[in-house]
Amino acid sequence: MKTRFLEALNRLHLHRPRMRNTRDAGFTLLEILVVVTIIGLLIGLVAPAALRQLGGARTSIAKQSIERLGLVLDLYNLDMGSYPTTDQGLEALVKKPTAAANWNGPYLKSEAVPLDPWNQPYLYRSPSDRPGHAYDLCSRGGNADGGRQTLLCNP
User: Fold this and answer.
1) What is the model's pLDDT at position 51?
2) What is the distance between the alpha carbons of residues 113 and 121, in angstroms, rounded to a whole number?
3) Phi, psi of 125 (to 5 degrees)
4) CATH homologous superfamily of domain 59-155?
5) Does an H or E element contain 45, and which?
6) pLDDT of residue 149 exceeding 70
7) Residues 143 and 125 sit within 8 Å (Cβ to Cβ)
8) Largest CA distance in the chain
9) What is the Cα–Cα distance from 120 to 106, expressed in whole angstroms?
10) Environment class of 126 (CB within 10 Å of its CB; exposed 0-12, middle 13-18, buried 19+)
11) Domain boundaries along the sequence of the chain
12) Which has more pLDDT, 146 or 88?
């Protein structure tokens, strides 16, 4: 009885794994389109949020750098009795200005004036255009044209 059953199975080929036809191998066009659509939707939803975070991080770094440079300018003021002029600029923190007797610099570790997070030079004016400030130290932010509404300045 057992042998008759096995013979019947052999004839029906039920116990052997079914060989795939070469036409059945791979993915259908519909499956590929569904996967591509899902990936596109994920990128469309995640990318703007990631870019917003990157922009916010640069703004935060710029504000911290302006505060730090402000402290360095205060040290310069203590030594020299005044802040660097607009013509001297932040370069006075790195290189001794002409006729500067009390200069105890360089006040920055690097030999060059730092750039803002957008690789633009900081804007420096002394005396300040704003009331209540001795100087203006600003970053243009992501807007290189320097429109006043986008400037990040010392508090």
Assistant:
1) 76
2) 8
3) -135, 135
4) Glycoprotein, Type 4 Pilin (3.30.700.10)
5) helix 29-80
6) no
7) no
8) 115
9) 22
10) buried
11) 59-155
12) 88
